Each structure stands twice: as structure tokens, then as C-alpha cells.
Amino acid sequence: MRTYDDTFSGQRIYPGKGKLYVRGDSKIFRFQNGKSESLFLQRKNPRRIAWTVLFRRQHRKGISEEVAKKRTRRTVKAQRAIVGASLDVIKERRSMRPEARTAARSAAVKEAKEKKAAAMAVKKEEKAKRATVASKGQTQRIVGKQGAKGSQPKPKATTR
After folding, report:
1. What is the C-alpha separation between 5 and 10, in angstroms, rounded?
2. Cα–Cα distance between 69 and 43 in angstroms, integer?
3. Where is the composition biased (Basic and acidic residues) (predicted)?
4. Which residues contact 122 (CB under 8 A, 6 or more apart)?
5. pLDDT tens track, the chain, 160 positions
6. Contact by Cβ (8 Å): 30, 18
7. At 159, is the secondary structure helix, strand, or coil?
8. What is the CATH number that goes with domain 4-62?
9. Rounded to whole angstroms, how far apart are CA atoms 121 and 64?
10. Buried-exposed string 10-21: b where 16+ CB fall within 10 A, e elsewhere
């Protein structure tokens, strides 16, 4: 007994059942019933219609053989050194007690703050030095944007 598959739904068509549809380019389509033919002619995607074989295959519905769960591989974590710190340094830091860690952190923060304050003091000193030099010399003239670029000053109008 010869059976065909429905072009749209993928279900079996037994002899004496179904419809045959021949398109203009002589391609043959077989349908189980008017429902699947209608959906095909509406250009519906069988992967989006829940009762078709294609949808069920795509969404893994009704597969009884796959009851046995696949064994998953456990990922093994390996410790590696990071650039600028060797593995033993990392392990040592990890095993540090929380009190020691906070003390080390506060010391580092304090050191960074002192460094920043020293840099700011130097900057302030330099700024004060520049201000005294400017005040000793001539008073600074306000220069426009074009003058700062080095353009020629506008000539004064001689006629009215």
C-alpha cells in the first residue's frame, strides 16, 4: 500500500484520501484535507502551527526515546595566575582574615590620599608662583578669541 506525506502538515495520506494540487510550474503538492491545503495557499509557515509535524519536531514534542536524560559534563575549575599577580599571591590574599584585609585596604587608601594631597599641594604652589610673577609684571590685557589666534587688529575707521 503506497502512502504519501502531506506537503504542509507532514502527516500520512492513505490511498483514496487527500487532494492533489499542481502549481503553474508543474510542482505537485499533496494535502491530507482542505484545512492543510487552505493554510498552504495562505502561505502560512507550518513550523508556526502547533499541530503540524514540523512544529512538533522543532519543539521536541512527543519524543519518548529521549526519556533517558543526557549526562552533563561537570566543568572543572582551574586556578590560573593573573597578569601582575602570581598564583601563590592570589591564594595568600584569598586566605587572608577579614580584619587583616580591611587593615591593608585602609592603609592603601590612606597612602593614596596622602599622595594625592602632596600632588595638589605642589600644584597650588606652582599656581601661586605664577600669580606672583604675573602681578609683578604688567597687568594682563584681555585678549579676544581672534587676538589669541594671532590675527591682525581691526584698523580704526578714519571717516565717518
Report:
1. 5
2. 38
3. 120-129
4. none
5. 999 999 999 999 999 999 999 999 999 999 999 999 999 999 999 999 999 999 999 999 987 665 566 778 888 888 777 777 888 888 888 888 888 888 988 999 999 999 999 999 999 999 988 888 777 765 556 677 777 777 777 778 887 7
6. yes
7. coil
8. 2.30.170.20
9. 78
10. beebeeeebeee
CA of residue 99 relative to chain centroid, distance: 38
Q: Which residue ranges make up each domain of the chain?
A: 4-62
Count of residues in the chain: 160
Residues near 54 by beta carbon (within 8 Å), at least 6 away in sequence: 10, 46, 47
Q: Which three cell numbers, joined as nine digits, stand for 6? A: 502531506
Dihedral, CA atoms, 88, 90, 92, 96, nearest 10 degrees? Answer: -170
Cell (9 digits) for 96? 587572608
Radius of gyration for the alpha carbons in the chain, expressed in angstroms and rounded: 42
The grid cell for 143 is 585678549
Question: Which residue in the block uniquely carries the three cell numbers 484545512?
Answer: 35
Q: Which pTM value belongs to this model?
A: 0.41
